[in-house]
Amino acid sequence: xxxxxxxxxxxxxxxxxxxxxxxxxxxxxxxxxxxxxxxxxxxxxxxxxxxxxxxxxxxxxxxxxxxxxxxxxxxxxxxxxxxxxxxxxxxxxxxxxxxxxxxxxxxxxxxxxxxxxxxxxxxxxxxxxxxxxxxxxxxxxxxxxxxxxxxxxxxxxxxxxxxxxxxxxxxxxxxxxxxxxxxxxxxxxxxxxxxxxxxxxxxxxxxxxxxxxxxxxxxxxxxxxxxxxxxxxxxxxxxxxxxx
Length: 244
Fold this sequence. Notes:
Blueprint: E1 2-6, H1 15-28, E2 33-37, H2 43-47, H3 58-65, E3 71-72, E4 77-80, H4 85-95, E5 115-119, H5 126-134, E6 137-143, H6 146-162, E7 170-179, H7 183-194, E8 199-204, H8 207-214, H9 219-223, H10 227-241
Parallel strand pairs: 1-5, 1-6, 2-4, 2-5, 6-7, 7-8
Antiparallel strand pairs: 3-4
């Protein structure tokens, strides 16, 4: 079982889109996938039509009690959902000085999936620390602009710090999202390469991404021929072969 944290300290870079479409492609290939919505904004849970505001989310139960009950979405995709109850769980854990905060997600490792994909918020809150503590790797979706590139260094430093507690943690690389083939974007790619940052793949900008999100469908279902759908498909194929 491979546990992957999808993480960036900057919001709006395509973390949820990446998780959803990676999960869809992996599931289509027959792999069993657990998606963890580790963000109280709950965009992943909303996408899967599993959002509820009137009861504690499974991710909050995991953070407080160390176990929960994944929700079946499709034959090959299960979900640990989120909502604002995660905020209360974070506060409760932080106030409990006797709690081994960084091991609360350890139960995930006892489950039987091929891949676990964790959709993290743009922060280093206690739930993100828990996610990184059990992760084998980190993939960083990155939309090229000045602030995203500057923030990458900070994220890399934090991940390196986490290796003191999780020696298996590996920063796999960046996944460039919403790529426009223009001068500034190409300059950003050159900056990444010059700084020896692994570019796993490039996802071209496509209006179909936003349309698919509104339709609550993954890109393959909504528009399999779109540039972004083809790019995510190729990315997953490279990922599975260890080519990125």
